[in-house]
Structure formats: C-alpha cells, structure tokens
C-alpha cells in the first residue's frame, strides 16, 4: 500500500523522532534498515541503494529524526527512508515543546469549531467548507474535524440518554409498590398516571426492566418488583 488509513484519514508520509535500537545492512550492501523507539512504540525504517550510507552513519543509542513513506506489509507498518539525520537532546526538547504547542492550538481550535457546530443550521458539507476556509484547514483536515465532532456529539447524546433512561427506570420501579395497593400488581395506566410518563414510555421501561430481571408480570397487564 502507498498509504495507510487512520482515524484522521489516509497517511502517506510520516516523520518520527526516536532512539536507534538497531541497524542492519545486508552483505551486498543494497538493503538495510534501522529500528527506532519513539517512546510510543517501535517502528522499522527500510532503505535501499543510496540510503545505506545514511544508515551506516548512525549507531545504537543515537537520537535521530526520520521522514519516510508509510508502508504496510503483513499487518506491520514501517517507513521507506527518505530523510535521516542525528539530532541533539536540546533539539529534541525544542521539537517536543513545538509539538505540545501545536496540540494545544489544535485543542482550542477544535473546541471553537465544536461550538460553531452546535449553532450551525446548514448541511455538513457546507459546515466543512466554512471551517476549512475560516481556520485554513485542508479538505481532509476539515472533514476529519467534523467527523470527530459528530462522533463526540453522538457519544454525549447516547450517554445522556442512558443516564435519563436509568433515572426514569428508577422512578418507575419506585412507583410500582405505590400503585399496587391491591397486591395484584400495578397496571401501565396506574404507572403512567402516577409518574406522569406517557403510556408508551411506561411500556418501554417495563419491557426493559423485565428483560433486566427487575420486575415480573404475575398476570397479564400487571407488574410487580422482583
């Protein structure tokens, strides 16, 4: 593959800063690789031909920066070497600080875009085009941002619904004994009148509570707590 699919979209080229764990060059000196640890994982960087000389300039323990084309082979991701050079610990710290700055900038921008999204009334395509222009994003970056915001909103809505459903179920469970004065079981009409829920909602909660083993139906249309 000439690229790999990620949550942010297709990636064809990547840069990595890491520590050299191992270097290898075959006996013909026409193929070689280095293995890097960037603290988040280990990746292999391959090269052929002229790239061999670059590999021979580094050794185990060196800090290096690598740029290369992303490849996937037998479920393993590696890079095809394009640029390789040593860096100092000072430069590494500078790069980390810059990356932290970019992350914070992206976080603040994401929050603002999410806020814009909540009040936008047009189509998703229109919103994507607007934020791409407003925040100077590429089409892929804007599409990825909107996709992430939609996923978060959906998750938030699902979480809120679960919380509300659990609260409604507890209200209904507490209402059953109070509506069961004759000890024959509470009816859906009694429960709807007592809780203020619609009959459809009461029936929905009852079905869920029966499936969960919280209540049972001693006779048709009447319900008791287990």
UniProtKB/TrEMBL annotation:
Domain of life the protein comes from: Archaea
Gene Ontology MF term list: nucleic acid binding
Residue intervals of the OB domain: 16-80
Pfam families in the cross-refs: tRNA_anti-codon
Any coiled-coil regions, as ranges: none
Name of the featured protein: OB domain-containing protein
């Amino acid at each position: 593959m000439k690229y790999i699919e990620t949550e942010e979209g297709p990636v064809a080229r990547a840069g990595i800063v890491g520590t050299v764990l191992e270097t290898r060059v075959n006996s013909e000196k026409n193929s070689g690789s280095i293995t890097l640890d960037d603290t988040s994982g280990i990746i292999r960087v391959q090269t052929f031909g002229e790239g061999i000389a670059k590999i021979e300039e580094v050794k185990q323990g060196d800090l290096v920066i690598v740029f290369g084309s992303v490849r996937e082979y037998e479920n393993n991701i590696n890079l095809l070497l394009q640029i390789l050079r040593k860096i100092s610990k000072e430069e590494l710290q500078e790069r980390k600080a810059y990356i932290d700055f970019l992350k914070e900038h992206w976080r603040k921008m994401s929050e603002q875009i999410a806020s814009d999204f909540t009040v936008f009334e047009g189509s998703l395509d229109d919103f994507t085009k607007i934020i791409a222009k407003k925040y100077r994003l590429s089409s892929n970056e804007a599409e990825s941002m909107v996709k992430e915001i939609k996923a978060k909103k959906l998750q938030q809505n699902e979480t809120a619904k679960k919380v509300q459903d659990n609260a409604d179920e507890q209200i209904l469970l507490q209402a059953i004994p109070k509506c069961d004065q004759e000890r024959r079981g509470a009816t859906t009409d009694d429960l709807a009148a007592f809780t203020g829920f619609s009959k459809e909602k009461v029936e929905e909660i009852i079905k869920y509570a029966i499936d969960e083993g919280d209540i049972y139906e001693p006779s048709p249309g009447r319900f008791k707590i287990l």
